[in-house]
Amino acid sequence: MxxxxxxxxxxxxRQQLDQWxxxxxxxxxxxxxxxxxxxxxxxxxxxxxxYPELIDPQSPTQRVGAAPLAQxxxxxxxxxxxxxxxxxxxxxxQAFNRRLLxxxxxxxxxxxxxxxxxxxxxxxxxxxxxxxxxxxxTRGDGTTGEDITQNVRTIRSIPLRLRGSGFPDVxxxxxxxxxxxxxxxxxxxxxxxxxxxxxxxPRNAAAGSLRQLDARITAxxxxxxxxxxxxxxEGGRLPDRHSEILRCLAQWGLRINxxxxxxxxxxxxxxxxxxxxxxxxxxxxxxxxIVFKVNALDLQQRLGFVSRAPRWAIARKFPAxxxxxxxxxxxxxxxxxxxxxxxxxxxxxxxxxxxxxxxTLHNADEIARLGVQIGDTVVxxxxxxxxxxxxxxxxxxxxxxxxxxxxxxxxxxCGSPVERxxxxxxxxxxxxxxxxxxxxAAIKHYASRRAMDVEGLGDKLVDQLVDEGLxxxxxxxxxxxxxxxxxxxxxGEKSALNLIDALERSKTTTLARFIFALGIRxxxxxxxxxxxxxxxxxxxxxxxxxxxxxxxQDVGPVVADHLVQFFDAPGNLEEVAALRRAGVTWPxxxxxxxNALPLAGQTWVVTGKLEALSRDEAKAxxxxxxxxxxxxxxxxxDCLVAGPGAGSKLVRARALDVxxxxxxxxxxxxxxxxxxx
DNA sequence: CTACCTCGAGCTCA
DNA sequence: CTCGAGGTAG
Length: 677
Prior knowledge:
Elements: H1 3-26, H2 34-50, E1 74-76, E2 86-87, H3 90-104, E3 112-119, E4 122-129, E5 132-138, E6 144-146, H4 149-152, E7 170-178, H5 181-193, H6 202-210, H7 215-219, E8 224-234, H8 242-251, E9 261-264, H9 266-279, E10 287-294, H10 297-303, E11 305-306, E12 309-310, E13 313-317, E14 321-334, E15 340-351, E16 354-360, H11 364-370, E17 373-374, E18 377-382, E19 389-393, E20 403-404, E21 418-420, E22 427-429, H12 436-447, H13 459-467, H14 482-486, H15 493-506, H16 511-517, H17 525-535, H18 538-543, H19 546-550, H20 557-568, H21 570-581, H22 591-594, E23 603-607, H23 615-624, E24 628-630, E25 639-642, H24 648-656, E26 659-661, H25 663-672
Parallel strand pairs: 2-13, 23-24, 23-25, 25-26
Antiparallel strand pairs: 1-6, 3-9, 3-10, 4-5, 4-7, 7-8, 10-13, 11-12, 14-15, 14-18, 15-16, 17-20, 18-19, 21-22
The protein binds a DNA duplex through residues 71-72, 120-123, 138-140, 146, 199-201, 203-205, 207-208, 210-213, 288, 353-360, 382, 384-388, 449, 455-461, 489-492, 494-495, 498.
């Protein structure tokens, strides 16, 4: 075949194959036998082999999976991928509706909702530029995910090129990648036949398949993609109703859920939920709830967002699955703060897609409330990502040998007495650092990634080090020698050297990390950062008084009290000194730096009703940029943010010639300083 | 909390 | 081959 003729034939074949592919994988409506599709594909492959210059990256032959990656690259979502608020029953849904109507000032409206099942898979983002699939990414934390382009390209229901026309220049499609039940069963059957370990549920199978560095493996997995919204849109317009946008996506060759529907009013949402719940078991895929979205985009915009979720959407979850099992034993774990937590050891039971063998019983009150005994038959509940729970006891099935759970009066680890503070539910071991469980927890926390980040120092190793008596205090970590380490189990020279090296590297840190690493009660990462920022140096922190602490962001009387207690306790200051002697060091923060925050020195006031933010949120964001947010307008006020309904403050601001901006200007100002809402 | 992937390194046995 | 650590996801 001549090249010109080959090019023509290849073009024709691609179009034909894309069409068949679309009908098969997107519409679920095959029009030709598999053999015919395969024949076409082979012919195209043959042409492309003969004329490699004719290969098009979007060709249907290019779905077999590319060569393995060394690692996934990070990608930033320009429009964050938010999560959804949850509803668990009809009452939550009514409350959702009331919130909507109130915010929109439409007390009696029957809003239109777009509804569809919430597939149990992995959320992804697909970026199309000029209709060509450019990038696929995981959700990650909503802002930063991983580039899984190579893997998504192998999924047949994801078009490599959009069909038709009229799509925006840049279109980010969001949806769920999942594994249909039949594919999951088939794959697991094959895995078992080959003596490999099957996946426990379709969701994990989909997640595992997408995490492959070798896309050729992903290509063999029966994955599907279903689109449910759009993110970034540039150079084009989309319709003004969610349901219409979905229709566009379908026209452009993306798969959308066949069950999607539009209903009017919250009661119709309930009916939709009930009908789908009844058919749930018969669906070809797993779902864990139903999503309801306000259909009109202008209303969505007016409703805005709360922290990490839109106000205009909600996921109504199905009731958590429950299973009956036996309580084998209760262990009492001692946490970093000495808190004693009872943990139920259960006869392993498959519930909600995973095998549950542990569940927290929280505290003594919870045990009393349940009236549970060891040996009892209990009901365990698990819903999706929530922690398994012991819900109730089947008392009538209590065996003769059941024994009461005796809450310890002494620490199970060190034997010190346990105490409970007035009004608190948790009992704590008073042993402090005498208690090896607390020491272990303290060291694990110190070494953890967000604290001092000692790579390679995991739970098991810490247990060993403490049990062998090699480390009795934090600073003891830095005294470890090669000889000591090599003597440990599963520790060769290489591992030992790596650990010593990691410890050495951890010594250079920041004040914020160090404060966090100390494990002061109630002082988490954020508070530690605020303290570091406010005081700049360890000395300044130490010299500060309780009232100085109270002046720091997010520090209330409780945290301030814990700080004072920490510094008053005898061993702590000596321990910090020992750590610094061992070489732990950080740069002091120029406290002038704190004043370098963009709005430092300015005083703002927020009044009236805001839409995208609550007043408290606006206040917090402004404070984050260094502004002082006052309650009333004075001559010293730099700027007034006035929403609708602003009254005397607005009048006074005008009188005093204070700058007044509205909410959109505020959002813009925040965005200018890198704060997106 | 559970499950999964990946990697480095130690252990085991030929 | 197995283990532990580190990371991701829901």
